[in-house]
């Protein structure tokens, strides 16, 4: 039975699953959902995922949303080292939870403020952007320290934590987030691009999708 993953190739959340599934060598079908055409809110899509967001995985009777949950499902199903055994598993989960609650959340708000509002022709709120940047910088300072002398987030092997924590880099060129103030973070991000072909490949596809889609609105970055 073919695994289907629903998503828009411009979505950083979809990219987490897309890249992890490719990295694990899983055969799957990509079912496109065009977010800019509002397809995530269409009745047919809401019937699959009432939350109205991508990615969504359909594997027979299993229907899952939330990229981290999908990645955990796939890593367990295919017994992938992306979800290590022993204490490293709980460290991986620790960073995935941290990423959701304290890290990616600010990049999502920033994307809405900087890009979403631009599409709607509304000015960004500088106070809100300042608040977001303050939070990103304080979290990035801690992450930068954690990464000093380390190859990846957990130990010296790629795990699902790397995909979850690296996700905000998907939109960095467009949101102009100041991750470049943090040398260990930048070195780790480059290492992921150099050593994880699926991360590099999905970056190129995501950038292409975003650049073309926004050019249609007369927006360049
Ligand atoms: N917490 C979710 C976030 C999913 C999400 O926000 N997806 C966005 C694209 S990156 C989406 O589908 N937005 C469509 C909408 O809000 O209608 C996850 O990690 O999968």
Q: Your description of this structure?
A:
The chain has helices at 12-23, 43-48, 67-77, 87-119, 126-147, 160-166, 172-175, 183-195, 197-215; strands at 3-7, 28-32, 56-59, 62-65. The protein is of the alpha+beta class. The protein folds into two domains: 3-77, Glutaredoxin (3-Layer(aba) Sandwich); 87-215, Glutathione S-transferase Yfyf (Class Pi), Chain A, domain 2 (Up-down Bundle). It has a four-stranded mixed beta sheet with strand order 2-1-3-4, with helices on one face. Strand 3 (56-59) and strand 4 (62-65) form a beta hairpin. Helix 1 (12-23) runs parallel beside helix 3 (67-77) and helix 5 packs across helix 8. The structure holds glutathione.
Short précis:
Residues 1-82 form the GST N-terminal domain. This protein is α+β, with helices and mostly antiparallel strands and 221 residues long.
